[in-house]
Amino acid sequence: MGAGVNTVRLSVDKDTGVAVVTLNRPERLNAVDLDMVRELADVWRELRFDDSVRAVVLTGAGERAFCTGIDRDFVVPQPSSPYMQDDPLLGIGPKANDLWKPVVAAVRGMACGGAFYLLGESEFVVADTTASFFDPHTTYGMVSAYESVLMAQQMPYGEVARMMLMGTAERISARRAHEIGLVSELAEPGGALEAAVRCAAVIAGYPTEGVQGTVRALWAAKDAARAQAFAQAPHLIALGNLPAERQAELFAGRPREYRVR
Q: What protein family is recorded (predicted)?
């Protein structure tokens, strides 16, 4: 990665074969801006060609959040046609950039909205007990389309439906996320990264071809359904989203109280 880049950090342990990718905007709760979109794509593509890396851990800097989705100050002009959708988050995940090395997500604090693009393209999630999961789209008059599709492949239907429809009024605790299978392992506060690296190091110690072939097979098992659902997303977003000005009003007036379950 080039000099001066700081919204994504990459470190590689050549001995274990594990790379750690860190979303590095803790002052913005690791929200995604245009720089991070570009840097994540660069990182995934760089890792494709680094044979010393055999497994990846994805995490967020700071204690408050893994990622809170797209930065509200980052405005993306949208075409007027419902047949086209300029969603920059579609390109931030490892699979979207043709990386088939296993990715383990380590979650501390909040993971919401656009964070699900990343969790949905990770093989599994390790979280500490401070983690919480929610989707604010409906609260702000927006369709949760891509996020819902990705999480519907990670969670029971009723659980993901409740999370998406309840918006900011409710958050899924790390404990509940573990019970329903979204999270594969719970760690003590601050321990998610260490636990995820431990898993990644085991995977990295296995023969590369077998591991990557397994990742590709697992993704193939759900890719057809995901692709079909994604094809509907631009139309649903164009039909269902309120105008940006109204979304901003709802965001400014959003209730601050929420329930954790």
A: Belongs to the enoyl-CoA hydratase/isomerase family.
pLDDT in tens, 147-190: 999 999 999 999 999 999 999 999 999 999 999 999 999 999 99
What sign does the dihedral 199-178-112-163 (CA atoms) show? positive
Both tokens of residue 153?
């492949």
Token pair of 48 as six digits: 């494709």
Distances (CA, A) of 176 to 59, 72, 168, 179, 250: 20, 28, 17, 5, 28
CATH number at residue 102: 3.90.226.10
Range of the domain at 151: 8-193+202-208
Report pTM: 0.92
Q: Which residues contact 224 (CB under 8 A, 6 or more apart)?
A: none
Q: What is the pLDDT of residue 125?
A: 98
As a whole number of angstroms, the distance between CA 112 and CA 67 comes to 7
Pairing of strands 8-13, 18-23: antiparallel
pLDDT digits (tens, 9 = 90+) for 192-248: 999 999 999 999 999 999 999 999 999 999 999 999 999 999 889 888 998 888 988
Q: Domain count of the chain?
A: 1
Residue 231 domain flag: no
